[in-house]
Structure prediction request, 296 residues.
Amino acid sequence: RPSQADYLRWTSQAAKPRQRQYHSPLIVSDGKQRFDGLRRHVGLPALIGPYGRTEALERIVGQHAGIFEKPGLALEVSAAGGDTQAFAAVLGGSADFAIGDATMVQMSREQGGPGVVVGTVVQRAHYFGVSKNLEPMSQPAEFAGLTIVTSPEPNTNFSVAKRMLESADLTIGEDAEILQVNPGTEIGAMLAGQADMAIAYQPSVSSAVAQGAQVVFDFASYVGPFCNTGIMVLPSTIENDPEMVQALVTAFEEASRLTYADPDFAKEVAKKEFPDLDPAVVEAAIDAQLEYRIPA
Prediction:
């Protein structure tokens, strides 16, 4: 985890701002995202409440710190209904970039379509198994007999749950059940008794813990590092404007380093973005993100 000195040394070597201003539409992969001002065209998953995510913490930190503006980027951010819709916006030409499940690109390429992942925003599983009646578990074989609630296929928490059940020789529909609900409502379904365990994101995980639930499975440590959430773009965009693409990726890297170096700043800007959330829940959510090294 970089120190403040590491961050200052890295930023001192950054390129000076370009004169050109890039208007860079991005699409967020969750329909509950709320933005204002310039942020109206891109699909970035972020801190959403009450049942949302902190997976684009770097985006929030970067915008509040003015990091994206330094190379002339003017982000226009909007929300999509999920990873599929976010990448579809790029394919359809209504956004330059999408931030979401990087497997969207792989699935496109397998079908002969375009797509490139140019950066990683989330480098570990950023969801947790949460329950109000189960004890902590360490192996997927312990999911036998459970009903697990996730977002719909092919969202990441569904795909990972399916793969882990299969790897434990558990048959979905016989040995365990997966209940698919709208992204962001997983915790609510679990608390309502529709499932034994929810695979959900921060800050809703911390909110559920405050209501008496507990984290019963740590996906971040079990799965290990991988490109969970990527910055997705078309090859034509890279070819036509490589400077814009590099500027966005570099800005995310700088924002990530600042997030780790100054978690208090990350907490403060998150509270400003989501004033309706309990400040203690926001702080706990960001502490968990950094403890498990989820931001890339």
In short: Strands lie at 22-28, 73-79, 97-101, 116-122, 127-131, 147-150, 177-180, 197-201, 214-218, 229-233.
